[in-house]
Amino acid sequence: MKPPPALRAGLAAARRWSAVSWLMRAALLVTGAGALLVAPGRLSGPGLVALVGVLGLVAAAVRPDGPGPAVVLGAAALAWTVRYGTRPPPVAPTLLLAALLALHHQAAALAGALPPVATVQAAVLLRFGRHTLLVLALSAAVAVLALAAARPAGSVPLELAGLAAAVLLAGVPVLLARARPGGGRPRG
Description:
74% of the residues lie in helices and 0% in strands.
């Protein structure tokens, strides 16, 4: 039995991808799968939420500039929230999940920005790697400061409102930029 023509065409195109494209997609799969395994902890409840992220993971590997990486991030975050609710989660798995999601985001950014057949100079990869290390180092510094600070009793509704405000502040400019003709991407 022959595969459908669309699948054959897709596989033929994938054979022309560069090594960097394959590497970034592999990083997307590994970090996304890791986050979707760490976040729920078990299959019931939070695990079912994480299963939705698997669809996003497949989509991210095929088209990293699409909604797939965001679905993975959202599913992992939602599974984590369902798993722990208002209880404080343990530190080590929290840091592991944060690192996996940051690396997933970075891999999606590079894979989405590069055409799949592009050859990339080593200097570009080194610069991107330095940027990734800087993001992780600064995130670790913030985590250490947050863990060192005394944690006052918080209000769950107030924390959720603050999180929603942060998402809006970050998301509205992105949505506005994408609403411009050409999706906010420079022509050239």
